[in-house]
Design goal:
The chain is α+β, with helices and mostly antiparallel strands. The chain contains 13 helices and 23 strands. It has helices at 21-29, 44-63, 77-83, 85-88, 111-118, 167-188, 237-243, 269-272, 295-305, 333-343, 358-368, 378-382, 404-407, and strands spanning 32-36, 39-42, 67-68, 74-75, 95-97, 103-106, 130-139, 154-164, 192-198, 205-212, 218-223, 228-231, 250-265, 275-277, 283-285, 287-293, 307-308, 311-312, 323-327, 348-351, 372-376, 385-390, 396-400. The chain is elongated. The mean pLDDT is 96. The structure holds adenosine-5'-triphosphate and magnesium ion. Residues 257, 260 line the site of magnesium ion. It catalyses: tRNA(Pro) + L-proline + ATP = L-prolyl-tRNA(Pro) + AMP + diphosphate. InterPro entries: aa-tRNA-synt_IIb, aa-tRNA-synth_II, aa-tRNA-synth_II/BPL/LPL, Anticodon-bd, Anticodon-bd_dom_sf, Pro-tRNA-ligase_IIa, Pro-tRNA_synthetase, ProRS_anticodon_short. This is Proline--tRNA ligase.
């Protein structure tokens, strides 16, 4: 991609009403654009990052046998009334009347509709287990949408739902998904700690995946030795005794919840009539679990924990481009470096702009945050070389023109 052709431009200043570091850097870099509080557009750079995150998630969902689908945003009031959530979730769920005076709702999660749809396909123990997921836009009437991508009113969620005949099967599958979650966060490049959180009806705890960060709205107590934590929401003497944890080994931290996995039991299957016939001919409710990740929140979290004064420092797996190539010389040498790199399959952003100073180009490279910066200048060309610097390091080295591809 040539910067001279790019749809977006970097901005020197972030909007003054935007306080969250993730949003300020992402807006300045041209990754997202703010539409209103809690609503952002993903611009070309931002979409590249988001798609890389989503693809990592997809690969790991495939490993646990998840089948991708895409459900509707519009919600059928009747099925939400069946579980009581049309009323109990009123504060978070967007609900309104359309021009025909019909009640409409927008999905903020999809347990009800997926249980309703599963009724068409699950009727026997032979149909179980099953797991489906989507990466889809949710709407929530969030009261405090001040943290940039961390808390959207319109935001992307990966939601996986699994269906089981019995508790053992669910417990085993749940652990597989927890492992998949750990792999996802590791591959994305953040360190997320599995955290005991409030479990609801069916299990003692749910599991959240929390990333330690100052801006985080959650408070967790981290057990470094076990690489586990407990959310303040459930933290008390009884829980500590239950986990056999000693208070003195725990550190209190602010954190961002990037994922949450839940055993739902029969909370949704029973009221919605999602049942199966077991091997002895008895009718039983299907046992369910749900597993969420916010890809947009995850992207914002990466920026929060991986940046400096100058800009973003993208982990390689989700960087918009691997290489940021800067030309400080108006000749065809840099063009050739770009073509060679692109032909070798490297993802390269090429600052070929002729109306920018070296300082402006360096500042943009730091702001955008690609892992490798390569500079082609008169000085480097005298040595048949380019200057190569990693975004997260200070020093650069000279690399021979002929050796660039191998040095990436
Ligand atoms: P929170 O407590 O932070 O509001 P939640 O517990 O309501 O989140 P879940 O319903 O468990 O969130 O949603 C699953 C995942 O979706 C969360 O772990 C988070 O990564 C993401 N998510 C939830 N709400 C938002 C939001 N408003 N904006 C962006 N991502 C979100
Ligand atoms: Mg949650």
């Amino acid at each position: 991609m040539k910067l001279s052709k790019l749809f977006t431009k970097t901005l020197r200043e972030a909007p003054s009403d935007e306080t969250a570091k993730n949003a300020r850097l992402l807006i300045r870099g041209g990754f997202v654009s703010k539409v209103m509080a809690g609503v952002y557009e993903y611009l070309p750079f931002g979409l590249r990052v988001l798609n890389k995150i989503n693809n990592i998630i997809r690969e790991e969902m495939d490993v646990v046998g998840g089948q991708e689908l895409n459900m509707s945003v519009f919600q059928n009031k009747e099925i939400w009334q069946a579980t009581g959530r049309w009323d109990s979730a009123k504060e978070v769920m967007y609900q309104f009347k359309d021009n025909f005076n019909k009640d409409q709702g927008l999905g903020f999660t999809h347990e009800e509709p997926i249980a309703a749809t599963a009724r068409h396909f699950i009727s026997s123990y032979k149909d179980l287990p099953k797991a489906v997921y989507q990466i889809q836009t949710k709407f929530r009437n969030e009261a405090r949408a001040k943290s940039g991508l961390l808390r959207g009113r319109e935001f992307l969620m990966k939601d996986l739902y699994s269906f089981h005949a019995d508790q053992n099967d669910l417990d085993e599958y749940y652990e597989k998904v927890a492992d998949a979650y750990s792999r996802i966060f590791e591959r994305v490049g953040v360190s997320a700690v599995r955290t005991f959180a409030s479990g609801g009806l069916f299990s003692k705890y749910s599991d959240e995946f929390q990333v330690v960060a100052d801006i985080g709205e959650d408070t967790i107590y981290v057990n470094e030795k076990e690489n586990r934590a407990v959310n303040k929401e459930v933290y008390n003497e009884d829980v500590l005794a239950d986990l056999k944890w000693n208070k003195s080994n725990l550190t209190e931290r602010s954190s961002i919840e990037v994922g949450n996995i839940f055993k739902l039991g029969t909370k949704f299957s029973e009221p919605l009539g999602l049942t199966y016939t077991d091997a002895d001919g008895n009718l039983r409710p299907v046992i369910m679990a749900s597993y969420g990740i916010g890809p947009g929140r995850l992207m914002g979290t990466v920026v929060e924990v991986s940046c400096d004064e100058e800009g973003i420092i993208w982990p390689e797996n989700i960087a918009p481009y691997k290489v940021h190539l800067i030309s400080l010389e108006q000749n065809k040498k840099a063009d050739k470096v770009y073509d060679d790199l692109a032909n070798s399959g490297a993802e390269v952003l090429y600052d070929d702009r002729e109306d920018k100073t070296a300082g402006e180009k360096f500042a943009d490279a730091d702001l955008i945050g690609c892992p490798i910066r390569i500079v082609v200048s008169k000085k480097t060309l005298e040595k048949e070389s380019v200057e190569l610097k990693l975004r997260n390091e200070k020093d650069f080295k000279l690399v021979k023109l002929s050796d660039i591809s191998q040095s990436l």
